[in-house]
User: Fold this.
Amino acid sequence: MNEATYDLLVIGAGPTGMACAIEAQRAGFSAVLVDKGCLCNSLFHYPAHMTFFTTPELLEIGDMPFSSPNQKPTRSEALEYYRKVAEHYSLDVRQYQTVERVEGSDGDFAVHTLDRFGRASTHRVRKLVVATGYYDLPNYLSIPGESLSKVKHYYHEPHPYFGLDVLVIGGKNSAAIAALDLWRHGARVTVAYRGAEMQPHVKYWILPDINNRIKNGEIKAYFNSTVAQITEDDVTLATPAGPVSLPNHFVFALIGYHPDFGFIERLGVKLDEANDRCPVCDPATLESNVPGIYLAGVIVAGERTNEIFIENGRFHGKLIAEDLKRKLKL
Assistant:
């Protein structure tokens, strides 16, 4: 199906992508967003009871206030806020649309998408923003057994794991939060991490909690250790004391995520291999080396995924909108 021409198409309907569409609309341009999942898909897949590290005003986009009774908002509050923002600005969000390929050039791009049922659409656009984030692509262990259905790369809620042996792999925020939540809801939890201790930059209210649970023996931890193999009934760890086999029902491999570098390169965007694979773009406008294709959000930082968050990525839309005003005639 062929559709009308838009001034701007944003790939990724998270907070940064929404901010880009909002600023484009405020500048007088038509904008459409496409996402392979739901609105704010990455936030939706965060743990159900997650609390943000930041304050509500630092998550605001489109100059809309984020009211919360909590000093640090919850995932549920954030999702409600962004739904209201989308409604207020009447954002044209095409959910569950996967971008298959992009053809054309600056001023006349054809963005080909498929819906959940394999039906094709073509969006004609003058400019393009890639704001796909990184949370949809987990880092893998590349070990025997990782493909078993019991191995998860996302953690949502604890109830299904009550009374079971669960291994959490990782030593950062995601792993610490999951381990504590699982333990508090009746799972028998073991943590395995290649570092000597839990990462010191784990959220300040989480770090002493997880360390105390480990110290008290309530959560078993193997540091300086890696997972060698996963089977249906157990896991094998490589530890400083030698191999250790543990009974196991589920594994949460929470070892981080990465941007879709392959998709970015297929667009023709160059990656600076000497600079943590940062895509080549103008820092003043965020236009990439491909004319008409802009980058926004965490993908601007390449593999340094801890540098850009909602708090600073939300301003990328204004930079892009200013460049659109210079280059597009209404």
Residues 2-136+257-327 form a domain with the FAD/NAD(P)-binding domain fold (CATH 3.50.50.60). Residues 45 and 192 are 23 Å apart (CA to CA). The helical segments are 15-26, 41-44, 75-88, 173-184, 207-215, 261-266, 310-313, 316-327. DSSP finds eight helices and 17 strands in the chain.
